Amino acid sequence: MTTPAEDAPLVFPSVAFRPLRLFAVCVVLTGLAMLAAGLLGHVRVGVFFGIGLGLGLLNAVLVQRSVESITAEAHPLKRKMALNSATRLLVMTVIGLTIAFVFRPQGLGVVFGMALFQVVLVLATALPVMKKIKAGAAEEIEGGKQ
Fold first, then answer.
1. CA-closest candidate to residue 109, choices 27, 43, 58, 60
2. What is the number of alpha carbons within 13 Å of residue 59 lying toward its C-beta?
3. Distances (CA, A) of 109 to 23, 37, 97, 115
């Protein structure tokens, strides 16, 4: 008998996640956004953009912690991770949209900040992995030539 997909053991590869580096990138992007928005006369958009980046970073850190705690269990389940992710994304979305609605139109910067953070997160985790893969491939080629 097979195990249903939702009850199958949860397996996560290790990823190159560095929250302090992401925090530094968020600070720089917030500064640039505030500068650009200030030059256009809308400093609050830059501030809300930074808040959106901060919410994205908070979400990423919470993902890391939940993955660590769930995978540390004897029998981690996909269902538990899915429920955790859905709940967290719902809360983050509600917070972002509430800020965007209450402080409209400048509050929309939160949504743009959250969206840009996802791009930054993908780049910050994918680029080191790609470099390592390329380095490993180069070592295999060099090792094969000798």
1. 43
2. 24
3. 18, 10, 10, 10
Nearest to 7 by CA among 83, 58, 60: 83
Residue 9, helix vs strand vs coil = strand
| Eight-state DSSP code of residue 7 | G
Label residues 27-61 b or e (16+ Cβ within 10 Å = b). eebbeebbeebeeeebbebbbbbbbbbbbbbebbe
The single-letter code of the amino acid at 15 is V
Tens-digit pLDDT profile for the chain (146 aa)?
A: 555 555 554 444 455 678 899 999 999 999 999 999 999 999 999 999 999 999 999 999 988 888 888 777 777 777 888 888 889 989 999 999 999 999 999 999 999 999 999 999 988 888 877 877 777 766 666 665 55
| Residue among 56, 126, 124 nearest 88 (CA) | 56
CA distance 61 to 49: 19
Q: Do 110 and 55 contact (CB within 8 A), yes or no? A: yes
Going by the DSSP 8-state scheme, the letter that residue 10 receives in this structure is P
- The pair of three-digit structure tokens given for residue 89, joined into one six-digit string: 């994304």
Q: Which of 2, 16, 1, 3 lies closest to 75 in space, CA to CA?
A: 3
